[in-house]
Amino acid sequence: MTQGIAILGSTGSIGRTALRVLDRQRNRFHVAALTAHSNADLLREQVNEWRPRFAGLVESAGVDRSDWHTGPSALIDAVVSPDVSIVLNAVVGVAGMDATLAALHAGKRVALANKETLVVAGALAMAACEAGGGEIVPVDSEHSAILQCLGARGAADVHKLIITASGGPFREWTRDRMAAATRDQALRHPTWSMGNKITVDSATLANKALEVIEAHYLFGIPYDRIEVVVHPQSIVHSMVEFVDGSVIAQIGVPSMELPILYALTHPERVSDAGIPRFDPLVAPPLTFEAVRMDAFPALRLGIEAGKSGGMAPAVFNAANEAAVALFLDGDIPFGGIATAIERALTTVPVTGKIDLDTLMDADRQARAVVGGMC
Ligand code: NAD
Ligand code: MG
């Protein structure tokens, strides 16, 4: 019997890569469900090839497929069915949150690319695992690396996590030059090919702040024991320093195929991942640099939001999502993204009882603050 996989966001960068990975693993897995936001043509192609029992399209206006599930609830309907063992959540943004929580409550493994879920609702996601018996296995390459470095060890054995960052396209730019960077410049990532939102996040380094918060919740490590270091080659995917001083790193060519496959098979390893093998003799020299916190205010603001806790990470995430969308539409300059995040974090109240309603209210308020800036 093969395991059923639901892929949320199958038309995106991670979703398409996942289908390439699954194509080589047909003896282990089958595709039980596919969902997309609005790319009906690609979803149709994928459905024709993979024949899932369930197909969902969130924005379905003008699409004539009575057999497809539609609207935002399609994501939740896709994950709760008994034939789904693993949910690969590759949706971008907080839109993926409800389905992650539903899958965890239903006792599923969530192979999580959608890091925004953990940033906005990390504590609720962990509680959902506890209540429903589900588990989160990270797809993000840094967190996959940390999971693999940890092996059977827990937080008590860890001195610190060292999360690597490529530094993005503006690694060597001054803050003044960056302030007016264009959309094309921000979308030209030196080592990874990804969706637009995460590519901009990698240029502001907001992505690394999201990843620090993600690591905090996934591995239960306090913020003062999570460090970010720039590693332009993207070969060392992250490291764990243990209490005795021993450091274990996970290394490989920059490809999401391995972390996606590992999130499905963890703790097992299978052959034929299909990615080029790492050869130290042809690899470039591996270098490391301190991160320039003053040049990348979105990183500093995000880590501070994580440390503040409460609603602050949700406000940080929502302001960033809204500001990146405005930047991609040409409505604010690159430097305006961090300004918008800072404005939201100083305007929206971040203390009080945390539940889904208060988090979504903070999310809405942050988006309104950012929307009012242009
Ligand atoms: P993408 O933009 O290429 O794809 C996003 C997918 O989500 C699409 O299939 C789209 O249809 C779907 N989607 C978007 N909005 C939706 C909505 N409102 N409701 C339902 N579905 C919606 O993005 P991506 O690069 O594949 O990234 C997906 C997630 O994975 C993000 O959280 C990102 O941070 C994370 N991630 C991506 C990479 C990468 O290499 N691309 C690496 C690590 C983590
Ligand atoms: Mg990452």
Annotation field: number of helices = 15
CATH architecture type of the largest domain: 3-Layer(aba) Sandwich
CATH C-level name of the largest domain: Alpha Beta
Q: How would you describe the oligomerization state of the chains in this entry?
A: single chain
The set of bound ligands, ions and cofactors reads:
nicotinamide-adenine-dinucleotide, magnesium ion
User: Given the C-alpha coordinates, what overall shape results?
Assistant: globular
Count structural domains: 3
Q: In sequence order, what are the helices and strands, one letter per element?
A: EHEHEEHEHEHEHEHHHHEEEHHHHH
CA radius of gyration is 20 Å
The major β-sheet equals:
7 strands, parallel
Characterization of this structure:
The protein has 374 residues and is an alpha/beta fold. The chain folds into three domains: 3-138, NAD(P)-binding Rossmann-like Domain (Rossmann fold, 3-Layer(aba) Sandwich), CATH 3.40.50; 144-255 and 277-294, no CATH class; 309-374, Rna Polymerase Sigma Factor, Chain: A, CATH 1.10.1740. Helix content is 44%, strand content 15%. It has helices at residues 13-23, 40-50, 73-80, 97-105, 115-132, 141-150, 175-179, 183-186, 196-204, 206-219, 257-265, 297-308, 312-328, 336-347, 356-371, and strands spanning 3-8, 29-36, 54-57, 69-70, 86-89, 109-112, 135-138, 158-165, 226-230, 236-242, 247-251. A seven-stranded parallel β-sheet has the order 4-3-2-1-5-6-7, sandwiched between helices. α2 (40-50) links the parallel β2 and β3 (54-57). α12 packs parallel to α14. The radius of gyration is 20 Å and the shape is globular. It binds nicotinamide-adenine-dinucleotide and magnesium ion.
